[in-house]
Amino acid sequence: MSETRRITFYLDDDLRPSVAAGEHNFFARLQGVLEDAGYAVSLRPSGAAARLEAPLRAGWALFHMEAPTHARALTVRRAYHYPFWAIETTDRRWDWHVSRTPFPSGEVPRREADGFHRRWARRLFGDAPEAACRDAMVYIPLQGRLAERRSFQSCTPLQMIEATLSADPQRAVEARLHPKEIYTPQELAALDALAAQHPHLTVGIGGKEEALARCAYVVTMNSSVAFDAMFFRKPAILFGQIDFHHVMLAATLGDLSAFERVMDHAPDFAGYLWWYWQRMSVNAGHETAEARIRAALTRCGLPL
Predict the structure, then answer these.
(1) For a Cys-Cys bond, which of 19, 142, 161, 258 suits 249, CB 3.0-4.6 Å?
(2) 70: domain range?
(3) Residue 222 CB partners (closer than 8 Å, separation 6+)
């Protein structure tokens, strides 16, 4: 067998056993496609040492939720919810294939997309989307590093909160800390100072489903909460880059006009979610999974 017909999956200790046992649907189907194309698939632990060795090993490498290390490396990541997956050459979601592809809104099969949206809204959130209202509240799901402006962001998260308070002084603003993030005392003190200066700002933690059911709209850098907001038919304003930007509003400190348009912003959320998941992602539970895996691998440059 040619040395180039080898691929190594670098997986963490939680994921690797289920993949090795063939119990992970997406990876089993991915491995099947590769083996059918003549690849020998091996599994190795992920980590710093693995990332150093990967470019030196023969064949290709595949990482899970990590940046590829060299030209013969790919990454895979869940497309927000199971069983939907992305196969890409970068971990930067705003550079993914779906991000660079225009949303063909006129080509959406209406009945199929609407039914798809209803089923997945109920599957993920139960009755909450149907019972949702648009209360006089702005929901800001926070991520990490609140005082830092990262490459994909137009400002710092703290500046985003200040901009929201200025642009929408009439509505209550609820900034919610991410329950899995660790915030510094300085970050928490900065939030407390903002809340003291602005009576219509409250700071909490978690509670995504409840907040999505009540809010008028979402403001975030690029949190996946804005993706989930589409199941509640709630619009979102983004201060950062992300792959699902097509039906979102964008804002910067220099242009807050999105806040003037957000209450009337009602794009085809159902059609977009259908397109994003059924046409641009791999649905590992669907009969088209292998075909979409082959197409994604080919697009990423892996020879089949």
Answers:
(1) 258
(2) 6-101+281-299
(3) 93, 94, 143, 152, 153, 238, 240, 241, 242
